[in-house]
Amino acid sequence: MxxxxxxxxxxxxxxxxxxxxxxxxLISREIFEKFDSARNFYNPxxxxxxxxxxxxxxxxxxxRVIVIDGDxxxxxxxxxxxxxxxxxxxxLLHIVIDNESxxxxxxxxxxxxxxxxxxLAATANYASSLTVFDESSLKxxxxxxxxxxxxxxTKITLGGxxxxxxxxxxxxxxxxxxxxxxxxxx
Amino acid sequence: MNNSHFNNLEKPHSSVAGKLxxxxxxxxxxxxxxxxxGVLRRVIDFLAHDERIMHITVNREPEAIxxxxxxxxxxxxxxxxxxNSGLFTASNDISSLLIPYRMPLVLIxxxxxxxxxxxxxxxxxxxxxxxxxxxxxxxxxxxxxxxxIYDVVRNLYRRAEDAQLPAVLxxxxxxxxx
Lengths: 186, 178
Hints:
The complex is a heterodimer of chains A (about 190) and B (about 180). Chain A is α/β, with parallel strands linked by helices and about 190 residues long. Chain A has helices at about 5-15, 25-35, 50-60, 70-75, 80-85, 115-125, 135-145, 170-180, and strands at about 20, 40, 65-70, 90-100, 100, 110, 130, 150-155. Chain A has one domain (about 5-180): Rossmann fold. Chain A has eight helices and eight strands; from the N terminus they run H-E-H-E-H-E-H-H-E-E-E-H-E-H-E-H. Chain B has helices at about 5-10, 15-25, 40-50, 60-75, 85-90, 90-100, 125-135, 150-165; strands spanning about 30-35, 55, 80-85, 105-110, 140, 165-170. A six-stranded parallel sheet of chain B has the order 2-1-3-4-6-5, with helices on both faces. The interface of A and B includes residues 77 and 82 of A.
C-alpha cells in the first residue's frame, strides 16, 4: 500500500455524509487535487493539529469525522491522543497514514518505527485501535469502527507523486465547509 | 452538577470576573478550551461549571487552538484561555490556521511578565507579547482596571468580527481583584 492507494481506499469506503479533515503536506494536497469536496477541511499550516481540529468538529457536530493524520504529524502533537481518549467522541475515526518519515519534507526518518502508535491510542482509551497493511484491511477497519472512537494506523511505503496543487483559497474552503455542515447549499 | 461556587460569581455582576462572564454569555459563548493559568482561575471556574458551555481541557496550547478551530467550524462559539507563555507555543497555530482561515475567535490570555512580575522566566515573554500580536496584525487589548471589562470584551468581539481575525484579551495578575 502507498499513500495514493491508502487515500483512495479511505475515500472509497467512507460515507457520503462523513467529514474529512486532512493533515499538513502531501496528504492534504493529494486529497485536495483528487477528492476535493465541501465536506473536506485541510490543515496546511498548523502542524500536528489535524486531530485536534477533528476533535473540535466531532464535539460540535453529529457527523462522523474522518481525521487523516500522518505519523510525524501525530508525533508532533502526541498529547492529542490523551485528550481525544478522554473526550471519547463516538463519531471520530483517527486514521494515521504511516510511512515512518517526514514524507512531505525530504522523507527524513520519523520515530514511528520505534513505537506502536496503535498501542499508544489503545492506552489512551480509544475504543478500537489497530494497524493495517493492505487496502482491504483498511476498508474493513473503517467500516468496523463506525459508532465508536477508532484509531487505524495505515502502514504505507514511501514515495509517490509530489506535484499536487495546493489549497490556496482557504476562506472559500472554510465557508463552503461550514455551509455544508449546516446543510446549506454550497 | 454542583453549581455552588460559580453561583458565588454569578451574583455580583459588579465584580470584574462577573462582568467578564456576562459579556461572554451575551456573546453566545457555548464552548471553551484552554490550558490553566493561576491568573485565569476565575475565568476557568465559570467556563468549566456553566451548563451552557462545553468545556474541554487539553495538554498544550496548540491543541486548544485546533480544538477551538474545529468547534468553530462545526458552528460552536468557542473561547480559548491560555497564558502568554503558551501564546508563543501556539503562535504558529494562530498565524497559520486561525488567521489565514479568518476565524474570529477570542483568546483570553494572562499577561505574565508585566510590571510587578517577580518570576524571571516571564520577563522576555511579557515584553514580547504585544509586539507578537502587533506583528500578526490581530486585534488585542490589555485590560486596565479603570476600564469596564464588559465594554472591553464586547468591543473586542466587534473588532474580531469586523476584521474576521482572532483577537486577544490580555489580563494582568490582579485583574479580578475588584
